[in-house]
Amino acid sequence: MKKPLLLCTILLSSIFADTAKEKVFHAQDNHHEDNYRHSSHVKDTEEQIISSTAEVSAEITVAITVQAITEITSRTHSNQARMSFLDNNRIQITEDIAKGEGEHINTLLRMMSIKNDKKNLKTLQKNLNNLIYLSHNDFLKCIPKLIKTL
Q1: Which residue, 3, 32, 104, 124, shows the most beta carbons closer than 10 Å to its own?
Q2: What is the pTM of this model?
Q3: CA 17, 18, 19: angle at the middle one, nearest 5?
Q4: Distance of alpha carbon 124 from alpha carbon 97, whole angstroms
Q5: What is the mean pLDDT, run by run of 10 residues, along the chain of 150 residues?
Q6: Cα dist from 142 to 17, 29, 108, 136, whole Å
Q7: Segments forming the whole domain that contains residue 64
Q8: Residue 82 covered by a domain
Q9: Total domains, the chain
Q10: Is 75 inside any structural domain?
Q11: Per-residue confidence (pLDDT) for residue 148, from 0 to 100
Q12: Domain presence at residue 27
């Protein structure tokens, strides 16, 4: 019962409705600009400065955030690489520390951004008994501490 009533209402509306007439607006010269100076759509100098400052701040924030994420990701990747290298080469690294030289300990120090010199290698060699039984995480944390302290 509702469908015929709705259909009838739509038909009657369309029959008696006026057709919309097209209105055309033409561009005006700039002599009307004075009338719109105080319009809410026109920005004053202070508003433009605030807007520009906000845009620059947003861009700086995005750049800093991207840089921070990149650094965190890079650090995480570096830590995983060191951990993997240590896991796969722990015996050879330990042997190199015992000798006070070697390719594996040199590579690990480079990965850790630690200067690979005789003094640092000698420090690690002297502390081999402290390093040998540490977990991988503790081993990687201990090396920079040993080298920084001496």
Answers
A1: 124
A2: 0.50
A3: 115
A4: 6
A5: 60 58 57 52 63 63 59 67 90 94 94 92 94 92 82
A6: 86, 76, 13, 10
A7: 56-149
A8: yes
A9: 1
A10: yes
A11: 79
A12: no
